[in-house]
């Protein structure tokens, strides 16, 4: 018999101080994780660490926390470490925003932590984001880089995101 863990999923408003506190916590994660991943050759494009905590933030705490995390993480990382490069920022910001929207929407409709919902989030933000990236850079090969190199990162988002969301389910 499979036990279903109930999960507390939120949709925090901009007027709630917790929105900003949680966003700052997830931005810190999105700063630390890429630094660790960049210790591995091609760790950034392969492991896609800038998106991980955005997925968690939006799925667990809603679109507003996710959007703040999605927009601040790449900008702060760029300002502190020049990574991602300025030329990559527009595409990463678009993908991050799409991820926040898709994750919040999936959590709202799934009402629980689901591998299939998370897979749908990851595939949808990557496909739509790739289309935007292609329009921005006019280079299909560059636009599909996440699909060429980032499968390990997408798998980490899927299974690692599921595991972390399950671990914090009752918080």
From TrEMBL:
Organism listed in the record: Bacteroides muris
Domain of life the protein comes from: Bacteria
TM region(s), chain numbering: 20-40, 52-73, 79-106, 113-135, 147-165
Keywords, ordered alphabetically: Membrane, Transmembrane, Transmembrane helix
Protein name: ECF transporter S component
């Amino acid at each position: 018999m499979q036990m279903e863990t109930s999960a507390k999923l939120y949709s925090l408003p901009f007027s709630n101080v917790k929105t900003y506190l949680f966003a700052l916590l997830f931005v810190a994660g999105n700063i630390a994780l890429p630094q660790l991943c960049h210790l591995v050759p091609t760790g950034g494009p392969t492991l896609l660490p800038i998106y991980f905590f955005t997925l968690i933030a939006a799925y667990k705490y809603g679109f507003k926390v996710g959007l703040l995390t999605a927009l601040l993480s790449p900008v702060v990382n760029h300002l502190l470490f020049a990574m991602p490069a300025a030329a990559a920022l527009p595409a990463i910001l678009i993908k991050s925003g799409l991820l926040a929207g898709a994750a919040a929407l999936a959590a709202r409709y799934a009402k629980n932590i689901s591998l299939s919902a998370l897979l749908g989030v990851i595939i949808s933000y990557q496909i739509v984001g790739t289309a935007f990236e292609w329009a921005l850079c006019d280079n299909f090969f560059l636009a599909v880089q996440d699909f060429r190199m980032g499968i390990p990162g997408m798998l980490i988002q899927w299974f690692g995101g599921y595991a972390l969301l399950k671990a914090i389910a009752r918080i």
